[in-house]
Amino acid sequence: MKKKGLIFLLLAAPVLAWGQTTVTPDRPRSRHGDCVDPIELIPGREYVHGESPSGPGRVQEFNGNQGASHFFPAEINTVWYSFRAPADGLIVFEITPFRIQDDYDWMLFRQEDPASCDSIFEYGIKPIRSNRARNNLRIDSKTGLHTGYANLHAPPGPGKSYSKPLPVRKGESYLLVLDNIYPGGEGHRILIRYADRKLPPTILVEGKIIDHETGEPLTARVFAEEDSTARTLLQKEVDSVSSDFSFPVPAGTPVHLAALKKGYLLATEKFTAGTKDTAVVLKLEPAHKGSRMILFNIRFLPNKAEFQPSAFPELERLLEFMLQSGERYIRITGHTNSNVFANKNWLLDLSVYRAAAVRDFLTAHGVPENRIRIAGAGGSRPLIQSNDMKEAMKNLRVEIELLN
To answer: What integer pLDDT is reported at residue 229 of this predicted model?
Structure first.
C-alpha cells in the first residue's frame, strides 16, 4: 500500500516498538478484528454486537506498546468499526457493555485512504481520541465520547470514562477499534450520533443484480451516488452467489444507481430515498446489436457542451464499457429539452456538440475514433411532454446505440 500523501488530524507520535504479529492457529480470532475488515456503522443507528470480541483478529496489529498511554499495549479481544460523517457537526458515541464487569478500551483514528491502516501500525499514528480508563461500574461501564468532557484521551487506571466530542466535516471517514480486556466477556451496543444537530433518518438500501432475461444473479460492479452531487455512496463488486449489495443513505436523498458487467449494457436507475428501508433490483440486459443505453447523468453546463463535474462518474463507466467491449461500435445521440422559447436549429446544433464532447472524452482515453458515430436530436424526441420547465429538463440525456 502507498505510504505517501497521508494527512491525519493530529501529528504522529514518535515511532513505537510495536508491530503486526500473525495469530497462530491455536489462538482465538475475532471476526472483524483487523483494521482492514471493519464493521460499517451508520450515525444515528444503534449497532448491537451480540458477542464479546474474542482474540486479536488474524493479525495482532498492536503489540509491545508498554508505557504508551494513548495506545493499547497489545490487542486482547478487538473489533474494528468504521463510519463516515454524513454532515458537519459534533460527533459523540457511547459503548454500552452487556456485562458491567467488561472493560472496553477504544481508540479512534481518522481514515484518509485505504493506506491508513499501514500508516497507523508502521508509523505509530496517534489516535485523535482514545480512552483506556478503568471501567466505572456506577455507570454500567459505559464509555465513549460525551459532551462536557475536555480530555482527548484517558490513560489506564482510574479516570474519566468519556473523552471529548469530535468535530467532523461531511464525508470524512473514521476507524474505531474496541478492545475488551477481559476474556469470556459479553457483547455491547454502540451508537454514534451528533450532539449538535438532528439528522434526517437514515435508511438502508438493499439491492440485487440479476440477468434481465433469465433472472439469474450476476457478478457485477455496482455504483451508488447522490444524484445531485455525485458523492459516492457505494462502489462494490458483488458476486453471483447472492448478487446482494447494501448501503445507508439519509431519507429524502436522490440516488443514482448503476451496474457494469462485461457483455451487458450499462444499467442505471434513479430513485429518491423514502423514510423506510428500500429494496431495489437492477436488471442487466445482454448487449445486442440495436440495444440502447439512456444516460441521464452525463450532465452539461446550461446552453453549453461542457460537462458538469457530476458527469464524470457516468462518463468513466461508459469508458469502461467501451474498453472492455473492444469489438463494439456505437452511435452517441445528444438530446436537449424541447424548449419552446429556443431556436430548434440551435438546440439541434447543441445536441450534436454535446454528443461530440462525449466522443472526445472517450477517444482522449483510448477508444479509437472509428468506433464512434455521433448524432443530435435537439428536443425533437422528448421522453416527457410537458410545458413545465422542470419536467422538460428530464428530457436532457445522452443515448448510446450499439451498431453491431
So the answer is: 82
pTM of the model: 0.63
269 belongs to a structural domain: yes
Please give the backbone phi and psi of residue 15, each rounded to the nearest 5 degrees, phi first: -60, 130
pLDDT at 21 over 70: no
Q: What is the mean pLDDT of the chain?
A: 86
Strand boundaries in 78-163, DSSP class E: 78-84, 89-97, 104-111, 129-133, 143-145, 153-157, 162-163
Could you tell me if residue 166 is inside a domain?
Answer: yes
For 324, other C-beta atoms within 10 Å of its C-beta total 12
Q: How many Å apart are CA 172 and CA 49, to the nearest integer?
A: 24
Structural domain containing residue 337: 289-404
- 105-110: average pLDDT: 95
Is 153 found in the same domain as 50?
A: yes
Integer Cα distance of 134 and 142 in angstroms:
11
Instruction: Give pLDDT tens digits for 122-144.
Output: 777 889 999 999 999 999 999 99
Eight-state DSSP code of residue 135: P
| Residue 19 clears pLDDT 70, i.e. is over it | no
Domain boundary among 163, 194, 225: 194
Please tell me whether residues 176 and 276 are part of one structural domain.
Answer: no
Where does 110-204 have alpha helices with state H?
A: 116-123
Number of domains in the chain: 3
